[in-house]
Amino acid sequence: MNDLIQLTNxxxxxxxxxxxxxxxxxxxxxxxxxxxxxxxxHERLIDDHKQARDTYQESLRGMxxxxxxxxxxxxxxxxxxxxxxxxxxxxxxxxxxERSKV
Length: 102
Description:
Layout: H1 2-12, H2 16-101
Helix pairs in contact: 1-2
């Protein structure tokens, strides 16, 4: 970096054309450092986004598994309720038939 500054100072003492070239060099170094900074920020943002996406997907997987388990329990409950209702229906038919005979 010191070599670049010395070269810039030496170029600045030559004439206006060299001063312009030196200012372009300094601006180029500044622009490169700013671009490097923003590229690093962008990479950090991508990493954070990937981590957040992975966390979100894991939570979704957990919710889907819980929902699946709850649906399985509901199916079992509905099947047992259906059996009980069928037994009640059969019992009511039987009771009605006995009343109609009497």
